[in-house]
Amino acid sequence: MKCINCTNTFCASLPSEIREEMCRVAVQSKHNAKEFFVKSVGPNGYLYILSLGTVIPYRLASNGNEIGVDCLHAGSILGLCDFLNGNADQITVYAKTNIELCAISVIKFDRLRSRCPAINDSIIKMLGVRLKHSYIKLGYTLGDSIEKMLYQLDELFEQQDVSINFTHDELALLTGMNRVTVSRVIESLKQRNIIKPLGRGRFVYINSLDQEFGGPSFKKINRKESLTLVLK
User: Fold this and answer.
1) How many CA atoms lie within 13 A of 189 on its CB side?
2) Nearest Cα to 53, choosing from 20, 95, 115?
3) Which end of the chain has fewer CB atoms surrounding its CB within 10 Å, N or C?
């Protein structure tokens, strides 16, 4: 796949000559769905543009559980914060779907960035979205498993709109819970009429975190479409 034809939100925002040059210097790789992998990032490493698919970067929480940092889609850049902070690190990533990455050395990316203001504009937009999510998250204690799940569902629906498709294990990774706890929380959400079963692992999402706990929500609540959660 050539970067000149790439339709992800980051590459599509760049001038064609920059996309062509980025394609020449990038090293492309693929990972299969449900694969775990590690990438080195930092000032002497690489940035990874997610050109296709969905990933969940994760880390170890203080209790030893793996917890997803975010759910990223095509157009996201893995290692962006480490690049901006000048930190050398490794990121561990779970591929939710089949994915394609374009690895670009930090040195070459910095040269392109100095020549192309559109790259900086896109980075600012990405950071703005992350800052917004972090600010909203501060409004919740997230000490309760149900609240954690509802917060995560609100965030996922904001990203993917009408329908989301996740396994119990993927929700466990995103919330820092184990699979048994996720199953128990899903059952509790059904009993509280927050989600309504449709059969075959499909649920209509009726209530949201702001309605249940009185906190802010960035999900588009006043929509005519049904919000559907699909669990496997």
Assistant:
1) 28
2) 95
3) C
